[in-house]
Design a protein that fits this description.
- By secondary structure, this protein is mainly alpha-helical.
- Among the domains are: 107 residues; 215 residues, no CATH class.
- α6 runs antiparallel to α7.
- The protein is globular.
- It is found in: Endoplasmic reticulum membrane.
């Protein structure tokens, strides 16, 4: 290739770069050009080799703060691969040290133990009494046989008994399993919130023709707030039902594997409860539990997603906005509002709004709602494990202080990073410490027994004390 041909090729290669950069610079007014006299030497644009000389333009580095570049998918893929390889190494090290510990059959064996789960079954069946009582109270008010004031009082009495009944059974019945206690307490708490919404909504508009089907549809629907007519989809899609069911089965299997293969060996290395450990040992165990606990928390969220959508599809329930994009939250307050939409709606409708109507300042009403939710979380975990140490409640209060005092310093991506850090070191880690101490207490009483799935389906530790 002769020099003239080579020059033509190189001109074409750089022509587009020069033309675009020149146009941008001219339109932005970055450079003011003085008039060129006939005696001045030719500029770079007029030079015969202009396309070779013009190879630069004004632009920011991609990773600088002034850049508008947003395509980081490659970096995200790199992080995912790095995390997979890192945890694959941890799993391999765990497998070499402990062997294969996953045994799903053991879980089912504990679930079908008659002497441990019949009290829980009785509790679940007994919940119908409170639901039917609420329906009868509404019918009496509809017929005028009961005044609204007395009806409201009887509803509150029914709800009070509903909350006290499972607590009394769990505390005083020695054969209630921990897993059964968890499920029963969760069922009664959800039922109490639903029945409160049921009587409040009927008080706002006294509806006619109350039926058993109407009440039980609401009790089974994936919502906590009652209304006259729920939005429904045209039909049930069987393929979606099977898809959600398969998701739940797979996620539960993975959760059982993480607990038995990863978390339980860490528990087995402990000899004392967290409350009696020195600070160094406590930090060491907490650091080891951060990753598996966080994975369990994420899997629990996805299990909740699959379960709620399964129920919604089965009942043709149309409102399936169960959560927002909490993973993009830049503040903890935004996360709390998007993590559990049904609970957030219930709190706003039946607690926050009523407090504001009673002239309670909105900021104080929000604080009371948050403290109530923290107390419910503590209650749901501490009671079945027979261990109330207020760790979950105090961690959530600490997160509230972080959200209030650091919101002006951590914004945007930094705020989102702070939210994820609080999830890693926050309530989920506090919850796992309760299970750790329960496991240690049970293991000390049954040294010869094989360790179950974090003893979730075994007798509580107080049974050991009674048998000694």
């Amino acid at each position: 290739m002769n020099p003239r041909t080579l020059m033509a090729v190189m001109r074409k290669r750089f022509a587009s770069v020069c033309s675009s950069s020149s146009a941008e610079e001219d339109s932005a007014g970055l450079y003011d050009s003085a008039p060129i006299s006939s005696s001045d030497p030719p500029s770079e644009q007029e030079h015969p080799c202009a396309s070779l000389l013009c190879c630069h333009s004004v632009q920011d580095s991609l990773l600088s703060s002034n850049s508008s570049f947003t395509r980081y998918r490659g970096i995200l893929n790199w992080i995912i691969i790095l995390l997979v390889l890192t945890h694959a190494h941890l799993f391999l090290e765990n497998f070499i040290q402990h062997g294969f510990l996953i045994d799903v059959k053991k879980v089912f064996q504990h679930l079908i133990e008659d002497n441990c789960n019949w009290p829980s079954v009785s509790l679940i069946l007994g919940a119908n009494v409170f639901a039917i009582t609420a329906l009868l109270l509404e019918r009496f008010q509809e017929k005028g046989a009961l005044s609204p004031t007395n009806g409201h009082r009887l509803h509150l009495a029914n709800l009070g008994l509903l909350l006290l009944f499972p607590a009394a059974v769990i505390v005083h019945e020695p054969t209630t399993s921990t897993g059964g206690a968890f499920f029963s307490l969760w069922l009664y708490t959800v039922l109490g919130m639903k029945l409160y919404s049921y009587q409040e909504a009927n008080h706002w508009y006294r509806q006619a023709h109350l039926t058993d089907a109407d009440l039980y549809y609401f009790l089974l629907a994936p919502t906590l707030c009652y209304q006259r007519d729920f939005p429904c989809t045209p039909k049930v899609h069987i393929n979606k039902l099977l898809h959600r069911l398969l998701e739940m089965v797979i996620v539960i299997q993975i959760m059982v594997g993480i607990v038995q293969q990863w978390i339980e060996p860490i528990f087995q290395r402990s000899e004392n409860s967290f409350s009696s450990m020195d600070i160094t040992m406590r930090v060491e165990h907490l650091v080891g539990l951060v990753a598996p606990t966080h994975f369990l928390w994420l899997l629990f969220f996805f299990l909740n997603h699959s379960y709620l959508n399964f129920c919604a599809e089965l009942l043709r329930f149309g409102d399936r906005h169960f959560y927002g994009d909490w993973w993009n939250a830049t503040t903890l307050i935004t996360f709390w509002r998007n993590w559990n939409i049904p609970f957030q709606k219930w709190c706003h409708r039946h607690v926050y709004t009523q407090l504001v109507e009673k002239n309670v300042p909105s900021s104080r009403a929000e604080l009371l709602v948050f403290l109530m939710s923290a107390a419910v979380c503590e209650y749901m975990i501490a009671l079945p494990l027979h261990s109330c140490r207020l760790w979950i409640f105090l961690v959530m209060v600490f997160e509230l202080l972080v959200a209030v005092f650091l919101k002006d310093y951590f914004q945007g991506n930094y705020g989102n990073g702070l939210v994820w850090l609080c999830h890693l070191l926050g309530p989920p880690l506090a919850v796992i410490t309760y299970f750790h101490d329960h496991y240690i207490s049970f293991h000390n009483c049954h040294q010869s027994s094989p360790s179950p799935l974090i003893s979730v389906h075994h007798l509580p530790s107080r049974v050991c004390l009674q048998s000694q």
